[in-house]
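Section 5.1 Outputs to date
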Amino acid sequence: MNTPVISSDKKEKSTILVWKIIQILMWLVGVVIVFCLLFYPVLGIHLFWNILIPVAPLLLVVATGLWRNICPMASTALFPRHINISKRIKLTTKHQEVLSLVAIFSLFLIVPLRHIVFNTNGFATAVLILSIGIVAFTMGIIFDWKSGWCSSLCPIHPVEKLYGNKAILKLKNAHCNSCVKCVTPCPDTTLNIQPFSSKKSNYQKISKVLLIGGFPGFIWGWFQVPDYNEIITIENFIESYKLPMVGLFTTSTLFFLLTKILTPKKQLLTNLYSFAAVACYYWFRLPALVGFGMFKTDGMLIDLAPYLPEEMIKGSIIVSSIFFFWWLVLKKQTKKSWLIRPVYKTI
């Protein structure tokens, strides 16, 4: 009678072992990227900015839970908990909301700096990654499980909720072996999690307008700015932030007005803005990767311009836009969470 239980137990341990191996491998990939950024900067920049980062939005759209399981920063943040050196402080709802707003501001602050320094300077990018890793590790030492970093201060987390509300994969939680209700609602295990889907505080209202409303315009504005390879001036800083902020202000203002007019259709509006953001990203990013970008060499992984007809590139970005429109706007909700909730801790 006990055989099925034992068999299930072995299968569970085997599954966890596989996830742990993948997490370690992904963390080592991160180490290799940082090493390359420091000592082989051209290669490191390609690996990080021109391979890993372009794949990330698509992964967040189609398999957010997979990313949540294997993200190297998540492994870094949760390491103190796994080795029992975390203070396990409970993060209050208000503090979580404040940290989430800080995460959004951090995203809008860091991304324009790519044009100034990070896109062309391997050492600076390595320092950025290491600095974020230190912050993530520190949050893991202070706060319990995913509350401090993965579900609050991580600048990518708001984007996870913006893009990942139509999950098709419901995977095992590879980090949490039991649920201690570190955050409410838990983004990993809430069905079809939405950006700021809990009670609407002032912090959340601001975050909602900035992220959902402002993100499409911010992305559009970011792609209108070239990378600066020479001596950086004050004017370069102003130019790097001007168009992204103008775009953010324009689309967030429009979003705010539309939410007042289309109250019954707020979910559709959120889906449309999510689509606009990710489709805009790939509209500009895909051509740039292969040498068809607005600023020839900026963000280029390989120059295929002499070999590919421009019509093929235009076709690929139209196909990608159609896919994201179907996925984020037309496709029905699946009533799934990103990850399976582990058993509640009883002690």
